[in-house]
Amino acid sequence: MLAAGLVCEVFGPHGQQIPGFDLALCTDRPGPVPTDSGMPLAVTHGLDRLAGADLVLALPWADFRTPPAPDVLRALTAAYERGALVAAHCVGTFALAAAGLLDGHRATTHWRFADLLARRHPNVVVEPDALYVDEGRIVTGAGAAAGFDLCLHLIRREHGAALANGVARDLVLPSHRDGGQAQYLAAPAPSDGEDARLARLLAWAREHLHEPLSVTELARRAMMSRRTFARRFNAATGTTPHAWLRELRLSHAEELLETTDLAVEEIARRVGYGSAAVLREQFVRRRGVPPRAYRQAFTHTP
Questions:
Q1: In the predicted model, is pLDDT for residue 235 greater than 90?
Q2: What is the 3-state secondary structure of the chain?
Q3: Closest CA to 76 of 98, 91, 60
């Protein structure tokens, strides 16, 4: 039920300011579908609905240790072969693996079942720690709420940062978490006063991206030593201050490229890079294209 709910939340309506998607839930046997919550889910569409889908998401199901029905596997394979983007998160990944779509590809699933996926499907390169793994037209995600990260990544990749950020704001979610970030954190997050100080610092940093924001300065504002700050930051976010700031800056740069006609030099200044050349270097390394090519892909800005 969580998986169906989060997909419907992300791809469902978000008001007039955010374009909607044509979303449909499908099953091989339309009708009431039992869920882990005990409440049945009424699904009216059969597998024929997949024939025109641009994106097919295989959702987790309770009996994932048993392969899906042959009709389901054939429908997933047919969707991929005609050019659809095929994705799954949590144990939904097992459906794509059973269809043979993950052979020779990297993939992830809920960390608890990563070893099982690797044993069952030795031709799949399982990455147990990733939040999501993007292999082009096949994208897989980790378990539970990481499905939000997968869905937002798909929107960001196909429709740009502005739309993904708008959906994230509407759902009160982080706008972007890198796919390589750990699924779960072994160390406890900061508590009490430390937690509040760190939360205030992260909010402050988002508003001051145009400033240098060294780790030393961030630690000072958090009233921690540099070493303690780095440890606490990683415990709370699963990444380093440098990586967190880099993704935040690139995400903001994406949105400015999509929604404004600001020069790349000005965008670089606003997101905290010393020059357009530095922004371009980071953009090519992390996004695969230079800023101007990204702008042309997602906007009609001359």
A1: no
A2: CHHHHHHHHHHCCCCCCCCCCCCCCECCCCEEECCCCCCCEEECECHHHHHHCCEEEECCCCCCCCCCCHHHHHHHHHHHHCCCEEEEEHHHHHHHHHCCCCCCCEECCCHHHHHHHHHHCCCCEECCCECEEECCCEEEECCCCHHHHHHHHHHHHHHCHHHHHHHHHHCCCCCCCCCCCECCCCCCCCCHHHHHHHHHHHHHHHHCCCCCCCHHHHHHHCCCCHHHHHHHHHHHHCCCHHHHHHHHHHHHHHHHHHHCCCCHHHHHHHCCCCCHHHHHHHHHHHHCCCHHHHHHHHCCCC
A3: 98
- The mean pLDDT of 4-16, rounded to a whole number, is 90
Sign, Cα dihedral of 121, 136, 48, 34? positive
Across residues 165-186, what is the average pLDDT? Answer: 66
Starting from the edge strand earliest in sequence, which strands make up the sheet with 132-134, in order? 55-58, 85-89, 138-141, 132-134
Q: What is the gyration radius of the CA atoms in the chain, in angstroms? A: 21
Question: Alpha-carbon distance 131 to 146, whole Å?
Answer: 6
Q: What is the pLDDT of residues 36-93, one digit of tens each?
A: 888 999 999 999 999 999 999 999 998 999 999 999 999 999 999 999 999 999 999 9
Cα 100 to Cα 41, 138, 219, distances in angstroms: 28, 12, 48
Share above pLDDT 90 across residues of the chain, in percent, rounded to a whole number: 58
Report whether 143 contacts 89 (CB < 8 A). Answer: yes
Total length of the chain: 302
How many degrees, rounded to 5, is the angle at CA 244 between CA 289 and CA 142? 85
**Listed residue (196, 182, 197, 175) closest to 237, CA to CA:** 182
